[in-house]
Write a structure and sequence with these properties.
This protein is 5% helix and 70% strand. The chain has two helices and 26 strands. It is globular and about 70 Å long. The chain is mainly β and 455 residues long. It has a 26-stranded antiparallel β-sheet that branches. The protein has one domain.
Length: 455
């Protein structure tokens, strides 16, 4: 089972986020909430964001010997299609049901060649996942609902295979079933069009992957999904949310210094390449990755340009709960290695946005990012060691939307991709080289507070 590791924040940050949460709770008491039928609608929605498959794989025999890989998996971009219906039972409470289909680009492959013969393997590929469930939401402003969801889900993984000399061998994988839980928020731009931000975690039952001659391999995966999206809602009350009007009030709302914090999904893809020129051997491992829950702390400054456009700068710190460990217990001796674990990253950049309404901003962002993985360490029989892992830098691109409550408080849904440069993990010039080229997909739900917003 995936381990969720506690992440400590500085006391000042905890205090700031606590104050922001108190303001958000106070906002639920705002007058003029939606009428009891405003959210009673059927809908169809699409979304894009980050997918990460991680979990635990255990191989064991009948004599107490075992090998465990915890945290290995895959990560990449994903898409969602959802249909559902909501029913608003009073001015603040909404219940709904939904059916969800997720498609993912997660795929891990391996290949090796000596210039004459080539062997290749498809190690893992996430085909799709579907879920049925319900959600309960609280209307915290006339056009904004914050919700939690719970349901049943199944995921389909492609069968792994190895091809060599024209022959392909494959292993039949089971289909996994489990529960999905999560939450997010939805903002109505109009009575029929809304923007959504969501994080989900799917936990699956352990299944037997392979069993023969007393040796059994079991797998217990977890799927992390973060999405930003748009929904079309059918029917409903005829009253429309307030349109964009511009002017000084909108300018004052969005100009200022802010602090933001939030959680979501981290999805990592690592492409490894090995070269041994002396024997003309080269190998590649593409798509090895994983992910987990991650967090973000950000500070920045925004300024309105005219009465509809926004430019801003920011600094951002991301931390991740993802760890990867391989351990073995053989003949009473325990050995382990920690590797390919994402620790933290920092980024600086700029964003540009346009107001879709006085209280809603759609934006894109670009920046420079620097990523740190945990150093590789190993131990066995009371001895241990390790070596320093290189740090990676590259460009970060992303987009999102932000809903302002007024009084400086806002909610954001954001998706980012960090394209990092290739770095050498190990090299003996002219003899051997091992290089890694990672990509990180990040989806976040953030609570922000803008100081001296002028409202």
């Amino acid at each position: 089972m995936t381990k969720i590791h506690a992440m400590r924040l500085p006391a000042a940050t905890v205090s700031t986020l606590s104050r922001l949460a108190a303001v958000l709770l106070a906002s639920t008491a705002l007058p003029n909430l939606a009428a009891a039928s405003d959210w009673t609608q059927a809908y169809i929605a699409i979304g894009i964001g980050a997918d990460a498959v991680t979990g635990e794989i255990v191989g064991a025999d009948g004599f107490g010997n075992s090998v465990t890989a915890d945290g290995l998996g895959g990560g990449d971009i994903g898409l969602s299609l959802r249909v559902g219906a909501d029913y608003q039972i009073n001015n603040w409470l909404v219940f709904g049901v939904f059916a969800n289909f997720d498609w993912s680009n997660i795929e891990t492959t391996a290949s090796i060649t000596d210039g004459v013969d080539t062997a290749s393997a498809k190690l893992m590929k996430l085909n799709y996942a579907w879920a049925l469930g319900g959600r309960a939401g609280v209307v915290v402003a006339p056009s904004l609902m914050v919700y939690g969801l719970l349901g049943y889900t199944r995921v389909d993984l492609d069968d792994p295979s190895v091809t060599f000399g024209g022959t392909t061998l494959s292993l039949d994988l089971p289909s996994y079933g489990g529960i999905v839980l999560g939450g997010g928020f939805e903002h109505k731009l109009t009575n029929n069009v809304s923007l959504t931000g969501e994080y989900r975690q799917s936990r699956f039952d352990a299944e037997t992957l392979f069993s023969t001659a007393g040796f059994t391999v079991t797998g217990e995966p977890t799927l992390h999904v973060g999405r930003i999206g748009v929904a079309y809602r059918f029917g409903g009350a005829s009253a429309e949310p307030a349109p964009y009007t511009g002017g000084g009030a909108a300018v004052n709302r969005w100009t200022g210094i802010y602090v933001a914090g939030g959680l979501g999904a981290d999805a990592m893809t690592r492409d490894l390449s090995l070269s041994i020129p002396g024997v003309n051997v080269s190998a590649a491992l593409d798509g090895l990755g994983g992910g987990d829950i991650g967090g973000t702390i950000s500070v920045g400054y925004d300024r309105m340009i005219g009465d509809r456009y926004l430019l801003g700068v920011f600094g951002m710190y991301d931390f991740s709960g993802h760890e990867t460990e391989i351990s073995a217990n053989v003949l009473g001796t325990t050995a382990s290695i920690d590797l390919l674990s994402l620790e933290r990253s920092w980024s600086v950049g700029a964003r540009a946005g346009m107001l879709l309404a006085d209280d809603v901003l759609a934006y894109g962002l670009i920046g420079y990012t620097h990523v740190e993985f945990a150093d590789i360490s190993f131990g066995a029989g009371g001895f241990g060691g390790g070596f320093e892992f290189p740090e990676f830098s590259g460009v970060m691109l992303g987009a999102g939307f932000e809903k302002s409550f007024g009084s400086g408080l806002s909610l954001r849904a954001e998706y980012r991709v960090s394209l990092l440069g290739e770095e050498s993990l190990f090299a003996i010039p002219g003899v051997v080289s091992l290089e890694m080229d990672p990509t990180i997909h990040t989806a976040r739900l953030l609570l922000a507070y803008k100081f001296n917003s002028g409202e």
